[in-house]
Amino acid sequence: MATFRLQGSRVLAVDMSGDAVKAKNGSMVAYDGQMAFKKMTGGGEGIRGVVTRRITGEQMTVMEVKGHGTCWFADRATEINLVQLRGEKLFVESGNLLCTDGGLRTGTHFTGVRGASQGNGLFTTTVEGSGQAAIMSDGPAVVLRVSRQYPLTVDPGAYVAHQGDLRQNLQSGVTFRTLLGEGGGEAFQIRFEGEGLVYVQPSERNTIAGDV
What are phi and psi of 59, to 5 degrees? Predict the structure, then answer.
């Protein structure tokens, strides 16, 4: 299995000895040893992924990197966070996914109105299995724990990913930006309940919700 390690907070180094990883296309910044690169079309594997992309027009372009040596990845100097999966499923916005172990399965998950409120479309990316994934955030990500006693409410623009036994639903109300006088009206928030982790970034992407 490939070994993921951070060099600083914005560069991912992956050591491989015949292993393979899947990474965001164009994110390789350097490598040593012998590496082979193959472009793939992501956004979900199998028939469902193909149908999803056809219906929504969404596409995530990834590449497979395989070989012996070390490969370094980065993207627009964004912060990188490592997530260790042990048979779990990670839900992550496709634009925030940098690299995964080759053995992890990727797919798509219907988000409906939540995804539309975030401006990210109707589907989000899933990563499942045992291994490591590297996700990106605009600024250092904060990992927040959700418990049955303490549910969590998140601004859609700050949401990056989540894992665990979590239920999510949209609730209408003013956004955090509205409270600061930067918003224009009522919008959506995402409420998480159950047991798990939610990854949020310290800056907000532009979302449809902020203008509702």
Answer: -150, 135
Amino acid at 128: E
Distance (Å, rounded) from C-alpha 74 to C-alpha 24?
9
**How high is the pLDDT of residue 111?**
65
Q: Are 192 and 146 a contacting pair, CB within 8 Å?
A: yes
User: What is the per-residue pLDDT for 1?
Assistant: 85
Total residue length of the chain:
212
Joined tokens for residue 141: 């990500």
Count helices and strands (H / E) in the chain.
Answer: 3, 12
Partnered with residue 92 across adjacent β-strands are 125, 161
For residue 115 the two structure tokens come to 């995804």
**Using an 8 Å Cβ cutoff, are 144 and 159 in contact?**
no
How many C-beta atoms lie closer than 10 Å to residue 147's C-beta?
11
pTM above threshold 0.70 = yes
DSSP code for 155: -
Round the CA-based radius of gyration of the chain to a whole number and report it: 17
Return phi, psi of residue 117, to 5°: -65, -30
Residue 39 contacts by C-beta under 8 Å, 6 or more apart in sequence?
A: 25, 61, 62, 63
Average pLDDT for consecutive 10-residue bins of the chain (212 residues)?
94 96 93 92 51 48 92 96 95 91 86 49 80 95 95 90 91 57 58 95 62 36
